[in-house]
Amino acid sequence: MQAISTKHLLGIKDLTANDINLILETAKEFKDVINRPIKKVPSLRDVTIANVFFENSTRTRLSFELAEKRLSADVVNFSASGSSVKKGETLLDTVNNILAMKVDMVVMRHSSPGAPHYLSKHIKANIVNAGDGTHEHPTQALLDAFSMQEKIGDLAGKKIAIIGDILHSRVALSNIFCLQKLGAEVMVCGPNTLLPKYIREIGVKVEHNVQNALKWCDVANVLRIQLERQQIKYFPSLREYSLYFGINKKMLDELNKEIVLMHPGPINRGVELTSDAADSHHSIILDQVENGVAVRMAVLYLLAQQN
Question: DSSP secondary structure string, 96-118?
Fold first, then answer.
């Protein structure tokens, strides 16, 4: 059996194209498993996994937890809001205390970019980055790529537009790295204030007109406005953003081709997407949610083989 080339999943940047393809192939097998009447396999029966979330999360945490239980792992859930972190305990102390309970793998979300990388240098357990600040969210990019492949096949040469708040999005960066490694062309679209200054340097096209982006792409991956990460105003109002960068079903129907519509959730309905677009036949948003479990099962399974 092929093996993944890394002990941790810290970001897409650290994966090879072979690693990505191996994860996606393995996820296909696990998707078959979770669609069976008996949805569990004993693959990680002797493995203990701690979900350590220093930031709020619903979908990602539940998706990881379900993936772990489907693999028969023992699961420990840790939430910073009710922990000794509030009393001043350091990140390293917190995780070392969890590891003293003989945990093999840590799935971690943290508001500081680089927090999982720091941990990986100090502890022996496998680390899976479930989102670090505005840096990366590798499993989201992998499940997005998996969902695209299911819908449109091989991504080499396909045109993918990422539309919305690129500046504050960890999903955007991971998606760009992942899609480029799979041979896709990537465009980002949004107001100038929500695009990072370095964005052209990483080989993506830049567009400020959402109609042009939709005409160009095979897949539109729409991101929400991350108001919780914005300390200053980047645009006059949500209404104005919606007017210039929101997508509705009429815009999709007027294209002279079929495109795929995606969103990592949660959707701000009426801002970046209208309900009739989000719920249209173009949308594979619910497929992304289902695929998240299979992809995370694949990641956990492959990393566990590295011990």
Answer: HHHHTTT--EEEEEESSTTHHHH
What is the C-alpha separation between 155 and 305, in angstroms, rounded? 28
The string of pLDDT tens digits covering residues 90-102 is 878 877 887 788 8
105 and 219 belong to one structural domain: no
Ramachandran assignment for 287, one of left (phi > 0), alpha (psi -120 to 50 degrees), beta (any other): alpha
Euclidean distance between CA atoms 163 and 153, whole angstroms: 21
Asked if 189 contacts 207 with a C-beta cutoff of 8 angstroms, the reply is: yes
Whichever domain contains 154, its CATH number is: 3.40.50.1370
Q: Please work out, in degrees rounded to the nearest 5, the angle formed at the alpha carbon of residue 139 by the alpha carbons of 105 and 162.
A: 160
pTM score, whole prediction: 0.94
Containing structural domain, residue 217: 139-284
End-to-end Cα spacing for the chain = 15
